Amino acid sequence: MIRNAKFWGIEYSDEFNEMLKKTNGLLNDISRHVRNEIVSGEILGINASSLEQYVLTKEEEELTRAKYRDTIRHIFDKYDVLEKRKGLERNLVGYVLERFAGYFKRNSAERPPTITFKNKSLYYKDRNVEIDTDKKQIIFPTVFGDFKVNYKDSIKSENIEGKKFGGNLNIKQKCFIVAVDVPFNQQYDPETVLGFDINKSLDNWIVFNTGEKITPNEIVKKHIDDIRQLNKLIDNKAKSGLKSSQRRGLRKRIINKHKALDNEVSKACKEIIKVTSEKKALLCIDMVKTGQMMGTFGQDKIIPALQTMCENQGVPFIAVPCRNTSRRCSSCGHVAAENRTSTDDFCCVECGHSELSHENAAKNIAFLGEKMFKAGVPCGNHGRISVEKLIEKHGPLQSPIQ
């Protein structure tokens, strides 16, 4: 499982602070240049991927972030950056392009935003940073030179692999954060299986394969409804004529509502984990799409919260891809769109099995989770890879339910 190794109490020298200011100025100059080229039509689109940034020009030439860096050489020359720092220059360009690509992924605005960097963080996507845990020093390579800084303490530093790695320096908090792999310590062998289906219908919010339900309290319902209404206001900003300051105010309200909803959802998740542990069950988590795609009904919080709790407490779990779980008959296995007669009703056209559609889906999720576990698929979230491919990858029966 992935957790954060953290180094805090970092001591900044005057030279280090000056470097941070210059880096921030450089990022803002690159950002302004990118925006101007988008407005002028020189850049038609920015496509972000986990490996590389691609900039599509009006000549229909694909430019990697490294090649695009060469086209803005004059910006780096203005700051007198050191020679042989092309990898670090590419990082800075990629950081700016990611911000623009992320904005256009979330919004459909015709004009690009003005993206400003406010000297809050120094981000290393590539593996460039070194740490000497004996001397309690971090070595930050930058386009202006290498800087050794002292830190006071750390957690999970023993989980860092390799001599160099990426991470994020939180400038205000004076801490450096690195994502690390931490082993999952399973606390028991499952004796049964518990699966559930998450739904937009709050009357059937969380339905288990056992037939039990969790319905949200009035506080949760209000937070969900408030978030939906606030999102509608922002999505319709062109029609409603909202100013930037008003949109910022709405976003702050949405953030606060999400925090409040987090707290309430956490209570429901703790109860699920408690029951799962008492039953010594394998928890099969419904991988329904997140709120950004379907609107929030709590699923964008329930799924990650349960996963984190399972990992922290050693509760065995499998995240189950939800493809066809609402169309498959939990009795005979027949899959058909016609099986789902309405939102809440399920009736198999093959065998006639009939029950609440959400309970049927929960049984399918439990069935697939157990099938994966028995085939040797490790506990955890393996993304949206199909069940068949995961089973094929991990081989024959290895871990049967007791």
Write the SSE topology:
Elements: E1 2-8, H1 14-40, E2 43-48, E3 53-57, E4 62-64, H2 65-71, H3 73-78, H4 86-106, E5 121-132, E6 137-142, E7 145-150, E8 153-155, E9 165-170, E10 175-181, E11 192-198, E12 206-208, E13 213-214, H5 218-235, H6 237-240, H7 244-278, E14 281-286, H8 291-294, H9 299-313, E15 317-320, E16 345-347, E17 354-356, H10 357-374, H11 387-394
Parallel strand pairs: 11-14, 14-15
Antiparallel strand pairs: 1-8, 1-10, 2-3, 3-4, 5-6, 5-9, 6-7, 9-10, 11-12, 12-13, 16-17
Can you give a write-up of this model?
With 402 residues, the protein is α+β, with helices and mostly antiparallel strands. It has 11 helices and 17 strands. Strands 7-6-5-9-10-1-8 form a 7-stranded antiparallel sheet. The chain has a 5-stranded mixed sheet with strand order 13-12-11-14-15, sandwiched between helices. Strands 2-3-4 form a 3-stranded antiparallel sheet. β11 and β12 form a beta hairpin. α1 packs across α4 and α5 packs antiparallel against α7. The chain is globular, with a radius of gyration of 25 Å. The two termini are 25 Å apart.
Q: Which structural traits does this protein have?
A:
402 residues, alpha+beta, seven-stranded antiparallel beta sheet, five-stranded mixed beta sheet, 17 strands, globular
Q: What's the overall average pLDDT, rounded?
A: 86
Query: What characteristic shape results from the CA principal axes?
Result: globular
Structural class designation = alpha+beta
Which sequence of SSEs, written as H and E, runs from N to C? EHEEEHHHEEEEEEEEEHHHEHHEEEHH
Describe the sheet with the most strands.
7 strands, antiparallel
Radius of gyration of CA atoms, rounded to a whole number: 25 Å
Q: What strand line-up does the widest sheet have?
A: 7-6-5-9-10-1-8
Provide a count of the helices.
11
Helix content: 40-55%
Would you report the number of β strands? 17
Distance between the termini: 25 Å
